[in-house]
Structure formats: structure tokens, C-alpha cells
Amino acid sequence: MKKQIIYILFASGILMLGACTTPPAQEEEAGHHEEEQHEENAVSLTGDQMAAIGIKTGPLSRRYLGASIKANGRLEVPPQNEAKVSAYQGGNVQRINVIEGDKVQKGQTLAILEHPDLITIQQDYQEALNRLAFLEMEYARKKKLFEEEIGSGKDFQQVESEYKTMQSRAAALKAKLHMLDIDPAAVAEGRIYPAIPVKTPISGYIRAVDVVTGQYVQPQQELFEVVDNSHIYADLMVYERDIPRLREGQKVIFTAAGMPERELSASIYSVGKAFEEDPKAVHVHAEIENGKGDLIPGMYVQGRIITDETQVLALPEEGVVIEGDRSYLFLLTDEPAHAGEHSDEAPAGEHSDEGPSGGAHDDHAKSQAFRMVEVGTGVKEAGFVEIKPVTKLPDSARVVTEGAYYLLAEMKKGEAGHSH
Questions:
Q1: In a domain, 205, yes or no
Q2: Closest Cα partner for 296 from 74, 73, 78?
Q3: What angle do CA 40, 41, 46 make, to 5 degrees?
Q4: Number of domains present in the structure of the chain
Q5: Could you tell me if residue 374 is left (phi over 0), alpha (psi between -120 and 50 degrees) or otherwise beta?
């Protein structure tokens, strides 16, 4: 009986020792399992692979989302910054000095006109001056005789009338010569100008040239269009229901046709006080704060008028993936991802060209690691989504901004490889 008790106690001790001690093989298997769990949320790709599948990275940004008014419109310039240049006198185009797109300064000659009528005007002015000089002497003589009661009052009144009429005619011809940009003093000395310049009244750029060499142009016919883009503004249309939310000074975020990837900003300085009937909306004018040099009047724009100054953390919608009922982004990390074994090969269907060692090719061959991080999401607007991190992200964090679903697919491919 005593021996049986000792045997039982000895067997129990061995069992307990076995339960408390894990064989080295089992420890290694458990560690490997934990490592695989970490790898499930990580992937690495080379620069070539990222370019092939369209992966782009960037920082998280703060944006105005949700509290805004959508508004479309066009880019315009104030009336004083736009000119339609014409000639005061009809004539034939002798020479054109500019083409569309040329930069011009106020007073610069755009074209030269010539016509026989120009010579006639100058001849009339010279004759008027000569006649005026004669009438001035005759007027002085008749006035003296009238005052001495030698000459009749009728003769004095007649010469006075002719003298004042000629004064008026000479003054009118002189003003006309000024308008034609002909020097009256030079004409008075006997000089005749066969041609006149057509000059721009403002500085800016030639938007249109509506004449050709040799063409006869009528007085007041439009010959050139000049526009000064330095004060370009956004002319937006806002519907009736949103008018109560408008006020001067509100910020406008917009994009222009032809450059949709570039976001511009402006500030409202004027809100219209009358409705346009079709559609029923008011004009809102906003002063552009950046990018003026690349903008052209007439461009169509799409914008958002910010009615709440609160900014939120945001990311392009292409940078967020949804798995089940949860949302994720991909964080660029400094740690090498173990899934990188998969990144040595180009994505399916792609071929990576081999290049010389060193230089840019080495940069593209270098792997970059990404970790999938869970986040909450909020307002979606204008292609962006509000991000609410579940865990705090570094202030300098760089994340995938485009192609997140492609990166998710690459990660799943890596996980499938490890499962074997």
C-alpha cells in the first residue's frame, strides 16, 4: 500500500512537470504564429511596383468638409481690365504689330492705319488756322472802327461771327487730330501724316486680333481685344436657398477646367443684390488668392463656399479601404514588412525593366513598407473623406493617398503565399 502511494505521487509530479514545460518546437511554433498575425496587416513594395499599380503617398491634411455651399461659375476680369480696341477714323490696315497672346503696355501701337481722309482732315486744319489768322486781324480792325464810330455795327457783327465760328472749327479739328494721335502743332507748321497708330488703352495680353493687313476698317470697328489678368476673379452662381448663408469674407475652394487636380482658393468680396432669372441665382464675386498667373478669363470653375471655418483631418477617398464594417488606411512605416518576400517580383501582369546599377533605378528597387491601420470616417465631400484615427498617428505620418485597394490586394496575395 505504501509503495502504491509513492508511485502515484511520482507519476503526478511527472505529469505536472510536463504540463509546465513547453518543448522548444512548440515555443518556436507559437512565436511564428504571433509573427504571422503581425504580418497580416503589413506589406512592402518596391518603387517600380508602386508606380505600376498607381500607389501614391502623402501626408494627412486638414480640410473644410461638410459645412459648405456648392457653386459653379466662370473666371472673369473687371470691366476696367478689359478693352476692345477700335479706330476713331476709318482706314486701311497698313501694318499689324502684334499677335494673340502678346503682352502689351498701355499706349503701345498695335497697328497702323492709312487713308486719304486722314490727309484731308489735316489739310482742313491748316486751312482753318490760316482763315482764323485772317479773321482775327479783320475782327480787330472792324472792332476799332466800330469803337471810333467810323464803321457800321453790322459789318463788325458779321466779322465777329465769322471769327468765332472759325475759332470753333479750328478747335474741333485740333481735338480730332489729338484723338487720332496726330500732333496738331506739327500739322500747323505744315507737316502731313499719311497714317495713324492704333494704340491700346490698357496693359495686358492680346486676346483677339480681328483684322488682317490691307483690310479696310470702319470707324469704331473692333480691331483687337486686350485683357489684363492681374485682377482676375471667380464669378460664381449661388441658388436662392443658399443666399442666407452667404457673407463677404468667406473662403472659397475651387478648381478650374483644364487643371482639376490643382486646388485654388479665393475670398468673397461681393454678393449680388439681384437675381438672374434662369437659373434663379445671384452672382458672387471672389478675389483669387493663388495661381493667378495660370488662369484665363472665361475658364469654367467648380467651387465650395466655406460657411464653417472648422477644419477636419481628411484623406482622398482612394486612400481609404473598407473591410467588413471597418475602415482602414495604409501608413508608410520605417520598419521592413515581412511580406516583402512577395515584393521581389513585379505584380501579376507587369514587367519591371532592368536598368544599370545605381541612380534612380536603385530608388525604384528599394522596398517601402506599409501597415494597415484602422480609422473611423466622417463627412465625405469633393472626393475627400474625414478621418478619425482610432489610435494616435504620428504628426509626420505619410499615408497612401491613391491606390489603397490595390495595396490591399497585394497584401492579400502576400498572406495567401504565407498560408502555404
A1: no
A2: 74
A3: 100
A4: 3
A5: beta
DSSP secondary structure string for all residues of 361-407: HHHHHSEEEEEEEEEEEEEEETTEEEEEESSPPPTT-EEEEE-HHHH
Residues 332 and 398 in one domain: yes
Distance CA(345)–CA(413), nearest Å, equals 12
Has residue 85 been placed in a domain?
Answer: no
Length of the chain in residues, anyone?
420
Cβ 182 vs Cβ 193: under 8 Å: yes
Look up residue 127 and give its three cell numbers. Answer: 486751312
288 within 8 A of 233, measured Cβ to Cβ: yes
> Count of CB atoms within 10 A of residue 205's CB?
17
Tell me how far apart the alpha carbons of residues 373 and 399 are, in angstroms, rounded to a whole number.
Answer: 10
Query: What is the percentage of the chain residues whose pLDDT exceeds 90?
Result: 35
Q: Per-residue pLDDT tens for 144-182?
A: 777 767 767 777 888 889 989 999 999 999 999 999 999
Tell me, what amino acid is at 253? Answer: I
Q: What type of residue sits at position 49?
A: Q
* pLDDT band (50, 70, 90) for residue 102: very high
Instruction: Give CA–CA dist 238/289, Å, rounded.
Output: 20
Instruction: Place 417 in a pLDDT band, splitting at 50, 70 and 90.
Output: low
User: What would the DSSP string read from start to end of 76-101?
Assistant: E--GGGEEEEE-SS-EEEEEE---TT
The x, y and z cell numbers of residue 405, run together, are 485597394
- For 182-196, the DSSP string reads --HHHHHTT---SEE
- Residues 76, 53 share a domain: no
Integer CA distances (angstroms), 337 to 36, 346, 363, 372, in order: 11, 17, 17, 11
SS3 276: strand
289 and 321 assigned to the same domain: no
Cell triple for residue 5? 502511494
Helices 153-179 and 116-147: angle between axes, nearest 10 degrees: 150
Q: Which triple of cell numbers denotes residue 230?
A: 492681374
Structure confidence at residue 133 (pLDDT): 92
Q: How many C-beta neighbours within 10 Å does residue 192 have?
A: 13
The residue segments making up the domain with residue 291 are: 68-80+229-306
What nine digits make up the cell of 377?
Answer: 470616417
Give residue 27's pLDDT band: very low, low, confident or very high (50, 70, 90): very low
C-beta separation of 372 from 39 below 8 A: no
Same domain, 316 and 414: yes
Residue 343: CB atoms within 10 Å: 22
